[in-house]
Amino acid sequence: MRPAVVAVPALLLLAGLLGACGVVSRPDAAAWDDQATLALTDAGSQVATARLALTSAAKERTWSPYTTVLVAEAEEAAAKAEEDLARVQVPPGRADDAAAVLDLLDRAAGLVGEARAHAVDGEYDDRSLLDDLDRLAGELQKAAG
Amino acid sequence: MKRYFAVLLGILTAIGGFVDIGDLVTNAQVGARLGMSLVWVVVLGVVGICVFAEMSGRIAAVSHRATFDLVRERLGPGMGLLNLVGSMLVTMLTFIAEIGGVALALQLVSSLHHLLIVPFVAVAVWIVLWRAKFSAIENVLGLMGLALIAFAVALWQLGPDWGELVSGLSPAEKPGAESWATYAFFGVALFGAAMTPYEVFFFSSGGVEERWTSKDLGVMRANVFIGFPLGGLLSVAIAGCAATLFLPQGIAVETLGQVGLPVAVALGKVGLAVVVLGFFAATFGAACETGLSTGYSLAQYFGFPWGKFVRPKEAAGFHIILLVTTVIAAGVLLTGVDPIMVTEISVVFSAVALPLTYFPILVVANDPDYLGEHVNGRLANALGVFYLVVLTVAALAAIPLMVVTSMGQG
Question: Which PROSITE patterns match (chain A) (predicted)?
Answer without folding.
Answer: PROKAR_LIPOPROTEIN
